[in-house]
Each structure stands twice: as C-alpha cells, then as structure tokens.
Amino acid sequence: MTRNGIIALVAGVAVAIAVGIWISDLVISNVETRQAQDSGAARVGGPFTLVNEQGETVTEADFRGRYMLIYFGFTFCPDVCPTELQVMASAIEALGPRGEDIAPVFITIDPERDTPEIMARYVALFHPRLTGLTGSPEQIAAAAKAWHVFYRKAEDESSSEDYTMDHSSIVFLMGPQGEYLKLFAPGTSPDKMAEDIAAFL
Ligand code: NI
Predict the structure, then answer these.
(1) What is the pLDDT of residues 166-199, one digit of tens each?
(2) CA 38 to ligand 1 center in whole angstroms
(3) What pLDDT digit, counting tens, does each position of 3-58 carry?
(4) In this predicted structure, what is the pLDDT of residue 162?
(5) CA of 73 to the centre of ligand 1 (A)
(6) Domain ranges of the chain
(7) Are 167 and 66 in contact (CB under 8 A)?
(8) What CATH homologous superfamily does 3-198 map to?
(9) What SS3 state is found at 114?
(10) Cα 168 to averaged position of ligand 1 atoms, centre (Å)
(11) How far apart are the C-alpha atoms of 180 and 61, rounded to whole Å?
(12) Which of 2, 16, 115, 129 is the most exposed place for a label (fewest CB within 10 A)?
C-alpha cells in the first residue's frame, strides 16, 4: 500500500469511529443507559404497575416467561412512534413461529390523552398481540424512570393539539425473567432487529 493509501485508510477509520461515537451519543442520550449496558448490569427495567386497554392493572409479573419488546411513546406522535411500532411488528413477523414467544408492549408517556380506549384502538393498527399500557402520571413516570426513558411536554404550534411530547425513541428487549437483554436504536431495520432477537431465543 502506498503512503497516501495508508493515510487515507487511517483517516477513513478515524471518521468511521467518530461517526460511530456521534451516532451512539445521539441515540443513547441517557448516560445511565450506557453505563448499564457497559457494565452488563440489569439496571434497565424493573417492576412496574400500569393499566391495560381493558382498564385492568398489569404488572411485570403478567409477562414472566415471555420475552418483551418494549417501546415508550404516545399515540398522537406524528411519525417516530408509528415507525418504530411498525418495525417492532415487522421484526416479530419476520421471526415466524419463534416470534410468538415475544410480547410487544407499547407504554404511553402521555397518559393524560392516552386513555385505555385510545390505546386499544391504536395498538390494533400495528400488531394483533401489541399490548398498550397507560396509567396514572405517577405510574408512567416510575416505569419511564426504570427504563431510563426521557419525556416531556412541548408546545406544538404547528398542530391543532395543545402539545406534543419529546421522548426517547428506543426499543428494549427484555428476557423471560424481566431481565434487560438489548436495546435497539431508532432506524434499526426489522430484519436486523429480528436477527438480534433470534440470538436470544
Ligand atoms: Ni413518538
């Protein structure tokens, strides 16, 4: 290899590393999530008490023995949430029969508007087994904290709605004992998600 070739190669690797770091900083905005990942400790997730589409109380115990694919968002979200929920649904379908071991779960971070009835109508648009969970503001805050999910109300002048929600957009894979296994950054393809999930099944 020529000297210029080596310089180009080194520069290329440096750019790739820099871009990689930038992307990971962008998508994993929460330092605690990153630390939990690095240490391998199961610090993502935990006990929760929420409310399903029938208005019934649901806890982590109701999902024991099944893998969970969890996403936090809100039904009024114009694009990011629907996209990620569609990716989750497609990944589960791509897994075929093995996908039946996975419980996809959508937890709203906008409990003020996302009532059980609204959640019921919304989740049905994506996957027949997608569970929509809401709850009191305190219950939602506790669940979001356990998964290190950030959210806040934001004014939305471009919409007829009073407000929109800023929120983290990460899909979490949890194991049969509720243990954290993996997170998926926004933009993960359904095939990649399915492949990574399959490695745990
Ligand atoms: Ni959203």
Answers:
(1) 999 999 999 999 999 999 999 999 999 999 999 9
(2) 26
(3) 555 555 555 545 454 444 444 434 444 444 454 454 555 489 999 999 999 999 99
(4) 81
(5) 5
(6) 3-198
(7) no
(8) Glutaredoxin (3.40.30.10)
(9) coil
(10) 8
(11) 15
(12) 2
